[in-house]
Amino acid sequence: MWPLLASELSVLFRRRRTAAMLATLAAVPVLIAVAVRLTRSTTPGRGPAFLDRITENGLFVVLTALVLCTPLFLPLTVGVTSGDTVAGEAGQGTLRYLLVAPAGRFRLLLVKYVGAAVFAVAATASVIVAGTVAGLLLFPVGQVPLLSGDVVSPWVAEGRILLVGAYVCVSLLGLSAIGLFISTLTDVPVGAMAATVALAIAAQVLDALPQLAWLHPWLFSHYWLGFADLLRQPIEWGSFGSNALLQLGYLAVFGAFAYGRFATKDVLS
What we know:
The protein has helices at 2-14, 16-39, 60-83, 87-92, 95-98, 104-138, 154-171, 173-183, 189-207, 238-263, and strands spanning 144-145, 151-152. The chain is mainly alpha-helical. Helix 3 (60-83) runs parallel beside helix 8 and helix 3 (60-83) crosses helix 9 (189-207).
């Protein structure tokens, strides 16, 4: 299994598409930092959260970028990657050759999911690293005020940012499982990618409708922006736990669906 996983990750991160998506994600915090630096002014209460704090402390560049990327750019790139896992191999005609290896269908499916999850981690890391570097270069960095009113050192704040990054990575696990399942349903990777991204958008639209409040806790996108609780003193772990439990539920359900479909899939015709 490990050689298969190493091969999968090597192929994934050598693709120009993957490099382009990671570069685009890294460009988001850089553009935010440059725009704020050039204008030198932000209106409090307008724009994404933490935007008006950037001029005071460069570490807020990362948090602003995550607020922007989590609902749109990160699901878009993860949807493209997870939707291409199985459908891409089937479309190129290489899936049957992969199954000739003694890894088996379950292991192959597991490797494909792990590859999509690793990409989600890399995508989040690209935003955090680029945002941290841009914030340090363009703005002063000092004591950081938390949402609870407490003030912490830059090192402690960076630790909180890494926790937020872990929260975002966990948030994308359910979407990766959905994309994997959809990818087993078709041999057209573009269709699987589009369907996964469309479901991510639809879930957020449904989550914004107050008439469907009973449905909100069951939507995989419901806790995506709940990482604000990690920026309080003391840390409130309730949203992190609820989000992790929800994503693991989606992983279990759609992982089972994906295996049920892939185990009976005809890859020879």
